[in-house]
Amino acid sequence: MASASRRVLVWSPRILGILVAVFFMIFSLDVFGEGKSLGPAILAFLIHNIPSFALLAFVALSWRRPWIGGSVFVALGVFYAVITTRHPDWILAISGPLFVVGMLFFLSWRRGGKAERTSEP
Fold it and tell me: What b/e sequence results for 82-112 when a residue is b if at least 16 CB atoms lie within 10 Å of its CB, and e otherwise?
C-alpha cells in the first residue's frame, strides 16, 4: 500500500471518531437555551456529554489498537439501531457515522495500521 493511502487509512478513523463525538456534543447545546442559570446549565451540558466523552475515550484506547475502535463503534451503532424503532432517520444520523468509523477502524487494523509518531515533516 502506498504511503499516502496508508496514512489516510490510519488517520481517518481516528479523526472521524473525534468528529463524531463533537457532532454528538452539538445536540447538548440546547441546555443553554432552557432558561437555566449558568451553573446548572453547565452541569446539564456535562451530563448530556457523557456519551461523547466515552466515545473520545474509546478513540484514545483505539489509537494503538484499532480493533477496539472497530468493535466498539460498530457495537454502538447496532445498539442504537436496535433501541430506536420509531425514527429511521435518527438511526441513519446516529448509527451511520458510528458504523463508518467502526469499519474504518477495522480496515486500519486489518492493514496493520497504528498511529505512530514520525520524524517526517
Answer: eeeeeeeeebeebbebbbbbbebbbbbbeee
Q: Pull the grid cell for residue 69.
A: 475502535
The Cα 102–Cα 96 span in angstroms is 10
Q: How many domains does the chain have?
A: 1
pLDDT at 6: 82
Judge whether 51 lies within some domain.
yes
Q: CA-CA distance, 103 to 113, in Å (whole number)?
A: 13
Q: Work out the pLDDT band at 119, boundaries 50, 70, 90.
A: very low
Integer Cα distance of 99 and 62 in angstroms: 15
Rounded to an integer, what distance in angstroms lies between the CA atom of residue 103 and that of residue 100?
5
pTM for this structure?
A: 0.82
Structural domain range at position 25:
3-110
